[in-house]
């Protein structure tokens, strides 16, 4: 039998009105950021609000994480020299990934993430705003980031024969950003 334990704020014990697949909240009583970690319960979460969210609009939550990318690719011989250099420049250092934490389709997640990879927004903090529900757990980020790297590599449109990727993701932070879907 599954026993449902109501979630309570770790600072003031106010019940958290957790719905369905939500993963993170701001306590309505004390403003504490809260993150649900599987098997552990609620933990403290810092929430960063971008100044770029227009007043009166709901922001959209994103996980922002740096990652070390390990990419092994094999291309057809004719491309080899120039394109390998490009890949090294792109992935030879830690890169920042900006992943939608709200509910969206995999297609839109991929489009937003690759757009924001190539066009990273200025991260300047502003006042707290309401934001859409956080439904993506930071524990699920690594496979999505690997998928995004593959999409970026495919977008460089050379003649890849085989490719394998693994990524080591640092602890992400949650940012509330404006709606970027109009750029897609
Ligand atoms: Zn509280």
What would the keywords be for this entry?
about 180 residues; alpha+beta; 5-stranded mixed sheet; 3-stranded antiparallel sheet; 3 helices; 8 strands; elongated; binds zinc ion
Structural class of the helices, strands and pairings?
alpha+beta
Radius of gyration: 19 Å
What is the number of strand segments?
8
Mean pLDDT: 89
* H/I helix tally: 3
What proportion of the residues form beta strands (DSSP E)?
25-35%
The distinct bound ligands, ions and cofactors come out as: zinc ion
Q: Would you identify the regions where 5 or more consecutive residues have pLDDT less than 50? A: none
Q: Sketch the topology as an H/E string, one letter per element.
A: EEEEEHEHHEE
Name the shape in a single word. elongated
Count of all domains: 1
Quote the distance from N terminus to C terminus. Answer: 45 Å
DSSP helix fraction: 10-25%
The largest pleated sheet is described as: 5 strands, mixed
Polypeptide structure, described:
Strand 2 (about 35) and strand 3 (about 40-45) form a beta hairpin. This protein has one domain (about 45-184). With about 180 residues, the protein is α+β, with helices and mostly antiparallel strands. The protein contains 3 helices and 8 strands. The chain starts with about 25 loop residues before the first strand and ends in a 7-residue tail after the last strand. About 20% of the residues lie in helices and about 30% in strands. It binds zinc ion. The site of zinc ion (ZN) has 8 residues, from loops.
Brief synopsis:
Helices cover 22% and strands 28% of the residues. It has 184 residues and is α+β, with helices and mostly antiparallel strands. It has one domain (46-183).
């Amino acid at each position: 039998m599954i026993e449902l334990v109501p979630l309570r704020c770790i600072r003031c014990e106010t019940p958290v009105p957790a719905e369905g697949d939500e993963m993170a909240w701001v306590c309505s009583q004390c403003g504490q950021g809260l993150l649900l970690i599987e098997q552990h319960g609620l933990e403290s979460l810092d929430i960063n609000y971008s100044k770029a969210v227009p007043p009166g609009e709901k922001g959209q939550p994103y996980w922002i994480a740096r990652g070390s990318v390990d990419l092994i690719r094999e291309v057809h011989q004719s491309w080899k020299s120039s394109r390998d250099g490009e890949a090294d420049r792109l992935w030879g250092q830690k890169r920042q990934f900006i992943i939608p934490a709200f509910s969206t389709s995999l297609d839109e997640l991929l489009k937003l993430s690759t757009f924001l990879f190539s066009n990273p927004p200025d991260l300047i903090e502003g006042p707290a705003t309401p934001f859409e529900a956080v439904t993506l757990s930071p524990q699920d980020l690594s496979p999505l980031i690997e998928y995004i790297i593959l999409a970026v590599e495919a977008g460089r449109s050379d003649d890849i024969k085989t490719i394998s990727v693994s990524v080591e993701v640092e602890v992400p932070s949650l940012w509330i950003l404006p709606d970027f879907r109009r750029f897609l």
